[in-house]
Amino acid sequence: MMFSYKNLTILFLVVPFLAGVGLLVWATSDTSKAGMKKEPENSRSVMKSEEEWKASLTKEQFRILRKAGTERPNGKVYDEFKKQGAGVYFCVGCDTELFSSKEKFDSNCGWPSFYDPSKIENVKTSVDHLLGYPRTEVLCATCDGHLGHVFEGEGFNTPTDKRYCINGTVLRFRPHASTDESNSTQVR
Questions:
Q1: What string of pLDDT tens digits covers the 188 residues of the chain?
Q2: Alpha-carbon torsion 40, 51, 90, 71, what sign?
Q3: Which positions are catalytic?
Q4: Per-domain residue ranges for the chain?
Q5: How far is CA 75 from CA 72, 81, 99, in A?
Q6: From the candidate CATH numbers 2.170.150.20, 3.30.70.20, 1.10.10.10, 2.60.40.1180, the one assigned to the domain spanning 71-186
């Protein structure tokens, strides 16, 4: 059987098209039918309009949490953070627990630092390129609010060698009732 130029052209156009359609069908298929688990959706998602966010947050909280801003280093919020004792830190946007004083340490960077979230399922990460290079952004898993960034391998003497560099403006601190827990780990 001989192929003509016309048949070869059709073959080179149709085969990639069919492969693409097959790939698209496979990628959008319900994987739970094949015995694979779908990623669970966060049942506590907080969805608000921009106007609702502006009404429930201060201007600075809105700028940081909803617009991925950054507070100035070594400010009043950081000074307060360093003085806070035992307790838990919650998202100002949705009141989800994020960090605790057990994972807090002083990295001397000018922003609140933690070596791990207190509830890992309440924090998610995403790589951003806003400064022209990749950084791992830290987000609240419930309201998708920007919290800060996480850095690895900086040599801090912590269990994870991670530094969750978090904007204190978007954290709400609630002290523990007892004061027998240490204030924070001093790391240099």
A1: 454 555 545 445 544 544 444 433 333 333 333 333 333 344 568 889 999 999 999 999 999 999 999 999 999 999 999 999 999 999 999 999 999 999 999 999 999 999 999 999 999 999 988 788 889 999 999 999 999 999 999 999 999 999 999 999 999 999 987 444 444 443 33
A2: positive
A3: 165
A4: 71-186
A5: 6, 10, 20
A6: 2.170.150.20
Residue the block writes with tokens 């791990």: 116
Tokens 């950081």 identify what position?
A: 78
- Structural tokens at position 170: 């978007």
Structure token pair of residue 137: 């952004």
| DSSP class of 155 | -
Residue written as tokens 């990749």?
134
